Amino acid sequence: MSSTGNSTAVAETLAWLDRAVIGLNLCPFARAVRVKAQIRCVVSEARDPEALLGTLCDEIRLLLATDVAQCETTLLVHPQVLTDFGDYNDFLDVAEAALDSMGCAGVLQLASFHPDYQFAGTDADDVTNATNRSPYPTLHLLREASIDRAVAAFPDAAEIYEVNLRTMESLGSAGWQELREQCRRDAAGPPTGAGTAG
Prior knowledge:
Number of strands: 5
Number of domains: 1
Order of helices and strands: EHHEHEHEEHH
Strand order of the largest sheet: 1-2-3-5-4
């Protein structure tokens, strides 16, 4: 585990990773990577999309240059920019273009998380949106090879989305809010599992 940047944002993001992503089993592949300390969590202080794009490109280069045993995936948290979900959603096209221009097609993939994440065709208050709601706007860089291995290990990977929807519906809005509050309380203490800045 490598973490760098705003310690509160790192702590809250890791608490969300532990309690929501892993705790609710929203991503069955996340636990092993977390246990093996192969997640890099970086907080960008960028205040405009151009600066964030530069940081993203730096993180892409770093992940490509790092052995998978050291770092399998990167969470790029950016609390100061793209706080509006519409702006964030528009930026995803720019981020994907950057991946393509850097020759990452088939090598790296981008996943998206935001406090106000909203799937097309849902209401803003639909609890199923919470499957992609993180404490802060976050860009998640994943290795395609790692995804392929994970999918091979979970033959029912295609069903994860449907299972997640049922999980969130069972939890309900009140349960989700309580989980979010617990993440904040966790973050007020020492960051669980965070290592030295990298």
